[in-house]
Specification:
With about 110 residues, this protein is an all-alpha fold. It contains 4 helices and no strands.
């Protein structure tokens, strides 16, 4: 499958990566950063995985399906953690993560 066929997934991955990076940065500015530690950790991991899968899809990696499966799990974990926090950046991140997880599942 060529990377052109992955365009909607690539777009979702990129949006999730950007949203997770924004959430990561915003969480570091919160009053109780220690309470946000798991959110920060998962934001970082999710953003990194989304960025990696985006690159893998563009280069037509033979491991795309397996990577998409892992990415979907990571996005769901990050979304579930972000959903626990009332901050607007966390809620937006959760939405982006769940949308990305669905996109990843479509090619896993």
């Amino acid at each position: 499958m060529s990377h052109e066929q992955y365009q909607s997934v690539i777009k979702s991955l990129h949006e999730c990566m950007e949203t997770c990076n924004h959430c990561f940065d915003a969480c570091l500015q919160e009053d109780n950063v220690k309470m946000m530690a798991e959110c920060i950790r998962l934001d970082r991991e999710c953003a990194d995985m989304c960025g990696y899968l985006e690159q893998a899809l563009v280069r037509n990696s033979p491991f795309a399906s397996e990577l998409a499966n892992v990415c979907a799990k990571m996005c769901e974990a990050c979304g579930n953690e972000c959903k626990k926090h009332d901050h607007e950046h966390c809620q937006k991140c959760a939405d982006a993560c769940f949308a990305c997880a669905d996109a990843c599942k479509s090619i896993a």
